[in-house]
Amino acid sequence: MSEKLRVGVIGATGMVGQRYISLLEDHPWFDVTCVAASPRSAGKTYAEAVKGRWRMDKPIPEKVRDLVVLNANEVEKVASEVDFVFSAVSMSKDEIKEIEEEYAKTETPVVSNNSAHRWTPDVPMIVPEINPDHTAVIKYQRERLGTKKGFIAVKPNCSIQSYAPALSAWLKFEPYEVIATTYQAISGAGKTFADWPEMEGNIIPFISGEEEKSEKEPLRIWGHVDDAKKAIVPAESPVITTQCVRVPILYGHTAAAFVKFRQNPSKEELVQSLLEYKGVPQELGLPSAPKQFIQYMTEDDRPQVKLDVNFEKGMGVSIGRLRKDKVYDWKFIGLSHNTARGAAGGAIECAELLKAQGYITKK
Ligand SMILES: N[C@@H](CC=O)C(=O)O
């Protein structure tokens, strides 16, 4: 492998930013050369900026500790130090849209964890195992932005990762109605129990905006690139309805889902399809790709957050309790790691795909 790509993390001090820093330690293709955050943190070393709020299990990587945090709003300055950036900035949606486009216009590819651009028609929203071909829309985005190298790619919301991968494996059986209830960890809100004591022993039956994302984003993932429209056109089916609930768990989003199929798959066919489901990341052996994308657990009491959330270093998805339902056809439980597969890990795998496809290169 030739020289590593220089990467910046903007929004590096928050929970998702910290996860990027931690996961990128010793990455074979990417080297964190720049950290950027709000003006409040700018000018401090990274270690000073996250003092008392570093939430990862491993210590701050040595190479990053002493990097001086730049102001994420000084786009040209940050862009001059990197080949591409991961965005985990925390601003209003409009501000995020604007700043991510500013970065792209400096010919700096942006791989974003934010929802701001998830419905921009020429911005691909990627789960590398499911829709790696959606990157073809980048040429239209570059046309619009007037860039040669710069573009934005995003990853979907973490909640969908606990049921959408299974449904993707089953698209051939034509699912047409899905109910999913998600039980979401507090780290999805960027929090720990220390800063959200109200969540100890509690359940909160509301996560702002989450149900809409959980119902609509899978359809965009299952859509296609329409060359005439220069856009991703979302799929129209299955219709998905959700309830999203915050539960007192630190990491791991669980879903209880019900599915109706137009075809009549057997349990063996459904399980086999999960186990065989893989994609470009597995074929190319991308550094963050799980060997097994989806595992099926046969025990009645699995998957469990405590035991299974770190399957494939948090990049695999665990499915269990697949059984016939008397109202719907089938029901199951899914579990995924919300900050690994669901956030920074998924974005890093997406950047690896973009590099492998030649969209992210040395400047
Ligand atoms: N919005 C989610 C985070 C996923 O991206 C949550 O609140 O858990």
TrEMBL record:
<keyword id="KW-0560">Oxidoreductase</keyword>
<feature type="active site" description="Proton acceptor">
    <location>
        <position position="253"/>
    </location>
</feature>
<protein>
    <submittedName>
        <fullName>Aspartate-semialdehyde dehydrogenase</fullName>
    </submittedName>
</protein>
<dbReference type="GO" id="GO:0050661">
    <property type="term" value="F:NADP binding"/>
</dbReference>
<dbReference type="InterPro" id="IPR012280">
    <property type="entry name" value="Semialdhyde_DH_dimer_dom"/>
</dbReference>
<dbReference type="GO" id="GO:0009088">
    <property type="term" value="P:threonine biosynthetic process"/>
</dbReference>
<dbReference type="InterPro" id="IPR005676">
    <property type="entry name" value="Asp_semi-ald_DH_pep-lack"/>
</dbReference>
<dbReference type="InterPro" id="IPR051823">
    <property type="entry name" value="ASADH-related"/>
</dbReference>
<dbReference type="InterPro" id="IPR000534">
    <property type="entry name" value="Semialdehyde_DH_NAD-bd"/>
</dbReference>
<dbReference type="GO" id="GO:0051287">
    <property type="term" value="F:NAD binding"/>
</dbReference>
<comment type="similarity">
    <text>Belongs to the aspartate-semialdehyde dehydrogenase family.</text>
</comment>
<dbReference type="GO" id="GO:0009086">
    <property type="term" value="P:methionine biosynthetic process"/>
</dbReference>
<keyword id="KW-0521">NADP</keyword>
<dbReference type="GO" id="GO:0004073">
    <property type="term" value="F:aspartate-semialdehyde dehydrogenase activity"/>
</dbReference>
<dbReference type="GO" id="GO:0046983">
    <property type="term" value="F:protein dimerization activity"/>
</dbReference>
<dbReference type="InterPro" id="IPR036291">
    <property type="entry name" value="NAD(P)-bd_dom_sf"/>
</dbReference>
<dbReference type="Pfam" id="PF02774">
    <property type="entry name" value="Semialdhyde_dhC"/>
</dbReference>
<dbReference type="Pfam" id="PF01118">
    <property type="entry name" value="Semialdhyde_dh"/>
</dbReference>
<feature type="active site" description="Acyl-thioester intermediate">
    <location>
        <position position="158"/>
    </location>
</feature>
<feature type="domain" description="Semialdehyde dehydrogenase NAD-binding">
    <location>
        <begin position="6"/>
        <end position="138"/>
    </location>
</feature>
